[in-house]
């Protein structure tokens, strides 16, 4: 076997025997990715939905540079530091209701693991045994670690072949219709002694296919959780920080979950950081004279000072620059640019919410061909399954955004 460039790298979600070699990126700025061969691509997906301020924002760069000179990292067990303290205080102030207690980790999947552990131990600490399962929704995606995988869609989801190794959770359809609401209510009643929590992606199931549901559906989930006395975990790892048009998608439905997970855009897409935020009620169940009631979790790089500095700088930008107005303007432009595809041959649906636009195709396209077609047209768009989607930086220029929707229309309009 001849050795190829990249042979030592094992790439994500990739059948490496079949896939074309990856493109080499050498620089990023704003909404642009520069490749080693000199080509420049307009990024339509903001690096897996993270780079909300565009790439390489000088304010974040400066904050991380200053922190790098002072203290790049220090363990968080028994020590604390100003960037983490400040970030936790700011997140608690920004988040709705009594979401006041912030546990930092280093990836979205781990933030979900922590949320699941918090929910299970919440009951144990209150002396209730047996509540070890969560109710999750069909179409959902919560990450790639074992607990997070167990809450992903068990049939359509990318992790279905691990089913036998994962904790068995309870699954329902999102309650969009009265019958689904009744089914959810019934499942919550049937499993009431074994459920620790309900987990949901507010307003948009991202990796499940950019499936959007109205605020009323989320409000129904929250109401049923209250009725059944169950904590609600909101996974805002994709939706948090302006992606759906408000700072947090939960706010659009006027609900306050008991536990909320953040990552991705938390650092403006620059560093690995995540947060699992709990209400005072959840936290109180861990506040005890009994050492066994402590939350036993602590990743080595939790609350990394560089990442916290980046996140603080990112929050500054939400205060000083009109990100939410930009998200709302993007919604209008995405609608204008993608709606003409509704009814086109091979198009089943067009969905837009905030800075998320999705075009659902009728059949499974040749993904590799589709991806390279986009690159040929100078844009970085990575469809998954039968969905072509755009989740640009909130700072993208009108002309770059129009170019993205023009290319999507062109490529899809040509019947792929
Ligand atoms: N939860 C949601 C809703 C996500 O969209 C993702 C990632 O796409 C995750 C969890 C997992 O995050 P990470 O890839 O950082 O582990």
From TrEMBL:
Pfam families xref list: Aminotran_3 (PF00202)
First-level EC class: transferase
- Which residues take part in binding pyridoxal 5'-phosphate? 108-109, 235, 299-300
Is Amino-acid biosynthesis a UniProt keyword of this protein? yes
What keywords is this UniProt entry annotated with?
Amino-acid biosynthesis, Aminotransferase, Arginine biosynthesis, Biotin biosynthesis, Cytoplasm, Pyridoxal phosphate, S-adenosyl-L-methionine, Transferase
Q: This protein's superkingdom?
A: Bacteria
Catalytic activity line of the entry: (8S)-8-amino-7-oxononanoate + S-adenosyl-L-methionine = S-adenosyl-4-methylsulfanyl-2-oxobutanoate + (7R,8S)-7,8-diammoniononanoate
Required co-factor(s) are:
pyridoxal 5'-phosphate
PANTHER family with a match to the protein in the record: ADENOSYLMETHIONINE-8-AMINO-7-OXONONANOATE AMINOTRANSFERASE (PTHR42684:SF17)
Its biological purpose? Catalyzes the transfer of the alpha-amino group from S-adenosyl-L-methionine (SAM) to 7-keto-8-aminopelargonic acid (KAPA) to form 7,8-diaminopelargonic acid (DAPA). It is the only aminotransferase known to utilize SAM as an amino donor.
How does this polypeptide assemble, per the annotation?
Homodimer.
Q: Which NCBIfam families match?
A: bioA (TIGR00508), PRK05964.1 (NF004624)
* The protein, known as: Adenosylmethionine-8-amino-7-oxononanoate aminotransferase
Q: What species was this sequence derived from?
A: Methylobacterium gnaphalii
Upper taxonomic lineage:
Bacteria, Pseudomonadati, Pseudomonadota, Alphaproteobacteria, Hyphomicrobiales
| Name of the gene encoding the protein in the UniProt record | bioA
């Amino acid at each position: 076997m001849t050795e190829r460039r990249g042979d030592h790298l094992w790439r994500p979600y990739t059948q490496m025997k079949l896939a074309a070699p990856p493109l080499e990126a050498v620089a990023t700025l704003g909404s642009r990715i520069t490749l080693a061969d000199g080509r420049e691509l307009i990024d339509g997906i903001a690096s897996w939905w993270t780079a909300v301020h565009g790439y390489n924002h000088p304010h974040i760069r400066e904050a991380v540079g200053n922190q790098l000179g002072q203290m790049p990292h220090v363990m968080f067990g028994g020590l604390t530091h100003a960037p983490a303290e400040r970030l936790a205080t700011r997140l608690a102030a920004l988040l709705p209701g009594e979401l006041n207690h912030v546990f930092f980790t280093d990836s979205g999947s781990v933030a979900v693991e922590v949320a699941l552990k918090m929910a299970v131990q919440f009951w144990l600490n209150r002396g209730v045994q047996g509540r070890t399962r969560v109710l999750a929704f069909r179409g959902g995606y919560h990450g790639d670690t074992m607990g997070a995988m167990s809450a992903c869609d068990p049939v359509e989801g990318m992790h279905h072949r691990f089913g036998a190794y994962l904790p068995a959770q309870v699954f329902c359809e999102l309650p969009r219709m009265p019958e689904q609401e009744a089914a959810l209510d019934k499942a919550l009643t049937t499993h009431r002694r074994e459920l620790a929590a309900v987990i949901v992606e507010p307003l948009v199931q991202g990796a499940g296919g950019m499936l959007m549901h109205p605020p009323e559906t989320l409000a129904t989930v929250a109401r049923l959780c209250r009725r059944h006395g169950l904590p609600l975990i909101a996974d805002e790892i994709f939706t948090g920080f302006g992606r759906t048009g408000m700072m947090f998608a939960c706010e659009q439905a006027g609900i306050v979950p008991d536990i909320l997970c953040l990552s991705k855009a938390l650092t403006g897409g620059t560093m690995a950081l995540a947060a699992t935020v709990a209400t005072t009620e959840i936290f109180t169940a861990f506040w005890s004279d009994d050492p066994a009631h402590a939350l036993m979790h602590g990743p080595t790089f939790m609350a990394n000072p560089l990442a916290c500095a980046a996140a603080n700088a990112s929050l500054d930008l939400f205060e000083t620059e009109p990100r939410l107005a930009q998200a709302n303007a993007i919604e209008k432009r995405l609608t204008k640019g993608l709606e003409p595809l509704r009814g086109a041959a091979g198009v089943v649906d067009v969905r837009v919410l905030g800075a998320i636009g999705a075009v659902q195709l009728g059949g499974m396209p040749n993904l590799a061909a589709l991806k390279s077609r986009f690159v040929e047209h100078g844009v970085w768009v990575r469809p998954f399954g039968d969905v072509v989607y755009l989740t640009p930086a909130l700072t993208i220029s009108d002309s770059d955004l129009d170019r993205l929707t023009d290319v999507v229309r062109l490529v899809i309009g040509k019947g792929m």
